[in-house]
Amino acid sequence: MNMKEIQIRTLKRGLRLCFCAAAVSCALPLDAASYAKNGARLTNFDFSFLYPAPTVAWEESWDAVIDARDPQNEKIIVPGMILNSPPRSYVLKYSTDLTLDSRFGPDGQGYSLLSWTDKDSLGNVFTIKGIAVREDGRILLAGSAPQKNSPGLTDIGVIQLTESGQEDASFGETDTQGRRTGRVSFDFNGLADVATALAYDQKRKAIWVAGLTRGDRGRMMQPVALIAKLTADGALDTRFNGTGKLSVPGGAAADIAVDANGNDVFIGGRYCYRITPTGAFDPTFGLNKDGKALIGIGAAGLDLQPDGKIVFGGTSGGARDPGGRDVPGGYGFGFRGGSTECGRHAGPGLWAKRDRGHSIQLQSGQRRSSRSRQ
Length: 374
Known about the structure:
Elements (H helix, E strand, L loop, with lengths): L2 H8 L48 E2 L4 E3 L7 E8 L5 E8 L15 E4 L12 E7 L5 E8 L7 E8 L21 E4 L6 E9 L4 E8 L10 E7 L14 E5 L3 E6 L5 E5 L2 E5 L16 E3 L4 E6 L5 E5 L4 E2 L5 E2 L5 E4 L2 E4 L7 E2 L6 E2 L3 E2 L7 E2 L1
Antiparallel strand pairs: 1-3, 2-3, 3-4, 4-5, 6-7, 7-8, 8-9, 10-11, 11-12, 12-13, 14-15, 15-16, 16-17, 18-19, 20-21, 22-23, 24-26, 25-27
C-alpha cells in the first residue's frame, strides 16, 4: 500500500475528501476529491441536475480509494450517496488532473448511479461505507442494503462493478433466471446490520466486510461488531467460522485490514482484534494472547505498515496510560510481536502517539511521533 492510499484511509468516516502530497488536511462542505503532486487541488461534483430545479442535491461520502495499478495513469474513485428523493448511490472516478474519467460510467460521463431497489424511499438506498479495487480494476463496494422481507431494516450489502462502472455479472447472488446480479446481501439477525468498512486480500482473493448491528432480535440494543468473509465471486466463505460470518460483542467495528498472513485486523469498540482466516481469535495477539488488545476509545481508522505494525487514527477525550496517569487528548498505540504498549515505547525503535485531531504516525528509530493534523 502506498502513502497516498494510507492518507486516504486516514480520512474516512464521514469527512469530505481532501488529499495533498504530504499530509491529509481539512474537510470540505461538499463531496470533493483532490489529488496533488504540486500543491493542493480541489474539485467537487454536484448531482443537483438529477432533480427538478430548484432542488439542491444533498450528498454524502465516507470513503475513497486510489487505483494505482498503473503509476502513470492513477485514478481516484469516490463513492457516496444522494439523500434526496429518490435516493441514489454513486461512484465517481477521476483522473489525477481531477477530470472525470471518460471511460467510466454507462455513457462515459465519469460516474455511475446505483440503487438497491426501485422504491422511492430513503430506507431503500444502498449506503456505501467501504470501497476497494481488485487487481484487475474491478471495484468492490460495501454498504447497507434493505432487508428482503423487512422494509426499513438493513442487511450488509456488497456490490462489484467492472472497471468501467457496470455491475459485474460474474459476481453475487443469482436472480430467478439464474444470472448473477453483481450484488449480494446477508443478515446477521440484527435489527439493522450496517457495513462500515471493506478490505480486499489480493493474494487470497478474499473480501472482508466489517460492520455493526444495532441490536440482535430479542436482545438489548447494544452495538455488536460484525465481520464477514466472502469468496472472490461474492459467496460467504464457510471456511470462516463455519458460516462466513462472525459477531463480536463489545462495540461496533469501525475499520478493517488484512495482514500478510491473511488474518483480519479490525477495531471493535475499545479493542483491536486479530482474527485468523478460519474465524478464531489469534492466540499470538494481545497482551493476554486472546486475540485482542485494548486501545481505548476514539479510534476510527487503521492501517497496516509493511512490517506488520498497526497504525490507528482517531480522536479521544482523554485516557489513562497503563501506569494510571492521565494523558490529555488520548494516546496512540503501536503493536509489535503480538503485544501492545500504550503511550510509551512499544518495542525497539518504535514510538506511537495520538493527540486530539491528529492521526497516529509510527516511526522506526525515533522516539518521537510525527503527527498529521486532520
